[in-house]
């Protein structure tokens, strides 16, 4: 009897997740999956976008400019293809997560005994997408209701303030304080750290964990530095023209 109850709970849990995908407008596809070394390796990202659209979703690459109706990042799902370890067997599964990294749906784990990586990955991806097709996706409405609050006019938004402050060791740091609420970055988990995306969503920064939870190795485009927490705020610090730049960053982990 306990086995039947457990099975019922598992099926019910999958059903809830399957239904919830209908609350999201579109799916964001990364240009690179974590288990691969290069962008669109074996064309898996292209195939993922193709299969998502075939399954009824609107789909966009993470570096793609989206139409205005898709700019609210929490109306979107974020797809990932993940690899499981296996001896002489390739195993892949697909996840769909919300803007906060919460798992909304996970496919069945697909398996292939093909020795050629490209053949095995493509075969597994196609198998895994059978679970996505089975959802019979149809957009049903917003994932999260809008919060009723004060509407802020554009002219009321404070401009970016740039000022110089003295720093220890006789180094002058240029501190850039960003007060605009639209500049908030959202942390999405990646291997060994996070990628910080804006509301587009576009990847703005990537940060790698260190032994200290208040310090990350950070990169913003070609600029390398650190992301550090000070007095409850995050700062991206790097050197430019022999000056230490400390740029205040609004991050939601």
Describe the structure.
This protein has helices at residues 2-20, 44-54, 117-133, and strands spanning 26-29, 58-61, 76-84, 90-97, 103-106, 110-112, 161-167, 171-177, 185-190, 193-197, 203-209, 215-220, 223-230, 233-240, 243-249, 251-252. The protein has three helices and 16 strands. The strands form two sheets. Strands 7-8-15-14-13-12-11-10-9-16 form a ten-stranded mixed β-sheet, with no helix packed on it. Strands 1, 2, 3, 4, 5 and 6 form a six-stranded mixed β-sheet that branches. α2 packs parallel to α3 (117-133). The protein is globular and about 55 Å long. It is of the alpha+beta class and 253 residues long.
Short description:
The chain has 253 residues and is an alpha+beta fold. The protein has helices at 2-20, 44-54, 117-133; strands at 26-29, 58-61, 76-84, 90-97, 103-106, 110-112, 161-167, 171-177, 185-190, 193-197, 203-209, 215-220, 223-230, 233-240, 243-249, 251-252.
Give the topology, please.
Elements: H1 2-20, E1 26-29, H2 44-54, E2 58-61, E3 76-84, E4 90-97, E5 103-106, E6 110-112, H3 117-133, E7 161-167, E8 171-177, E9 185-190, E10 193-197, E11 203-209, E12 215-220, E13 223-230, E14 233-240, E15 243-249, E16 251-252
Helix pairs in contact: 2-3
Radius of gyration: 21 Å
H/I helix tally: 3
Spell out the helices and strands N to C.
Answer: HEHEEEEEHEEEEEEEEEE
| Strand portion | 35-45%
Measure the end-to-end span: 42 Å
The average pLDDT value, as a whole number, equals 79
> How do the strands of the widest beta sheet line up side by side?
7-8-15-14-13-12-11-10-9-16
Question: What does the main sheet amount to?
Answer: 10 strands, mixed
What is the percent of helical residues? 10-25%
Q: What overall geometry do the principal axes of the alpha carbons give?
A: globular
In total, the number of strands is: 16
Broad structural category: alpha+beta
Low-confidence stretches: 1-19, 144-182
